[in-house]
Structure to design on (291 residues):
C-alpha cells in the first residue's frame, strides 16, 4: 500500500521509527555512494523504500545524516518525496520513504514505445519537477544534486524529487543560523515527541553552507559551481536544464565522459564545459522543429 503524509495524521507527528517496526525484503531498489536502498514493509502494511547509510569510511557523517534528515522531513510539497521517519540504531542509520512503483523517471519513460506519448509524459514529469524545485527554492533550499536518478514516479505517473543529501540551506547574513539539529534527543518518551518545525527565512542576502566533503554530480553542475564559486539556486536551474535534455532524449549526457578516462582527460572535459564549449549533439535527439 502506498500512502502519503496526509494519510498519516497521527503517525506523522513522530519521526523516530523503531527498527522492529520494519520488515525488510530482499529487493534492492538502488545503490549509491554511501549506502543502499531496499524495499520494506512498515508496520505490516505500508510499502516503503529504506535508504541505509554507512559511516564506516568517512564519506558520510552523522552531521550529514542530520542535515539530510532535517531538510527532507520539513518539506511538505506534493512534488517532493515525503520522509516518513528515520531509524538511528545500529551501525547503519536509515531513512524511510514511500515506495514508488514506477521507479525513476528515465526507466519509466523508457517503457513508452510511442514517441508522442513518451514526450507528453516527459512534459508532465518536467512540470512536476519544476513545481518541486520552485517549492524548495521558496523555502530557501538548494537541492544541489538534481538529476534524472533523483526523480521518482508514483503510481499515478506524477514525478517527485528525492535525495536531499547534498542540499544547502540558505540564511540571511543578518539572521541567526538555522538550528544545526532537529533530531530529538533519545528518551523513553520518543513516541510522544511533537514533530519539529523549521521556519526558513526569506531569500534576501542569502548565503549557503556546504556540509561535508561530498559535493554533487559534476555532469549536472554549472560551470560556476565547477569553478568553486559557490552554490545557488541558479545551479539547480542549470541542473534542471541538463535533466530536461536527458529525459527528453533518453540519451546519456556527456557520452564522451567514461569511467576509463584518466584524471587529465576528465579535467580537460570539465575545462571545456567551464569555457562554454558546446557538447556534441546527441544523434538520438529529436529535431527541435518537431518538439
Amino acid at each position: 500500500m502506498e500512502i502519503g503524509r496526509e494519510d498519516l495524521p497521527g503517525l506523522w507527528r513522530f519521526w523516530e521509527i523503531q527498527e522492529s517496526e520494519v520488515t525488510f525484503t530482499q529487493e534492492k531498489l538502488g545503490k549509491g555512494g554511501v549506502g543502499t536502498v531496499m524495499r520494506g514493509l512498515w508496520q505490516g502494511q505500508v510499502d516503503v523504500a529504506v535508504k541505509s547509510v554507512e559511516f564506516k569510511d568517512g564519506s558520510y557523517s552523522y552531521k550529514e545524516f542530520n542535515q539530510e534528515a532535517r531538510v527532507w522531513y520539513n518539506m511538505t510539497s506534493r512534488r517532493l518525496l515525503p520522509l516518513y521517519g528515520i531509524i538511528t540504531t545500529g551501525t547503519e542509520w536509515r531513512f524511510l520513504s514511500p515506495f514508488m512503483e514506477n521507479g525513476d523517471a528515465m526507466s519509466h519513460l523508457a517503457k513508452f514505445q510511442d514517441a508522442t506519448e513518451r514526450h507528453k509524459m516527459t512534459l508532465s514529469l518536467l512540470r512536476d519537477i519544476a513545481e518541486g524545485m520552485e517549492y524548495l527554492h521558496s523555502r530557501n533550499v538548494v537541492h544541489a544534486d538534481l538529476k534524472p536518478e533523483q526523480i521518482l514516479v508514483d503510481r499515478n505517473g506524477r514525478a517527485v524529487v528525492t535525495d536531499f543529501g547534498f542540499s544547502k540551506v540558505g540564511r540571511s547574513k543578518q539572521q541567526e543560523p538555522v538550528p544545526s539539529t532537529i533530531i530529538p534527543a533519545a528518551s523513553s518518551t520518543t513516541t510522544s515527541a511533537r514533530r519539529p518545525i523549521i521556519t526558513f527565512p526569506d531569500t534576501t542576502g542569502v548565503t549557503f553552507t556546504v556540509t561535508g566533503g561530498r559535493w554533487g554530480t559534476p555532469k549536472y553542475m554549472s560551470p560556476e559551481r565547477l569553478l568553486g564559486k559557490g552554490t545557488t539556486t541558479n545551479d539547480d536551474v542549470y541542473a534542471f536544464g541538463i535533466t530536461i535534455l536527458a529525459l527528453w532524449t533518453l540519451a546519456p549526457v556527456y557520452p564522451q565522459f567514461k569511467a576509463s578516462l584518466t584524471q587529465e582527460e576528465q579535467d580537460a572535459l570539465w575545462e571545456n564545459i567551464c569555457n562554454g564549449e558546446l557538447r556534441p549533439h546527441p544523434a538520438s535527439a529529436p529535431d527541435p522543429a518537431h518538439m
Summary: The radius of gyration is 20 Å. Residues 1-13, 172-214 have pLDDT under 50 and may be disordered. Residues 66 and 181 are 6 Å apart (CA to CA). The chain has two domains: 5-98, 105-183+196-290.
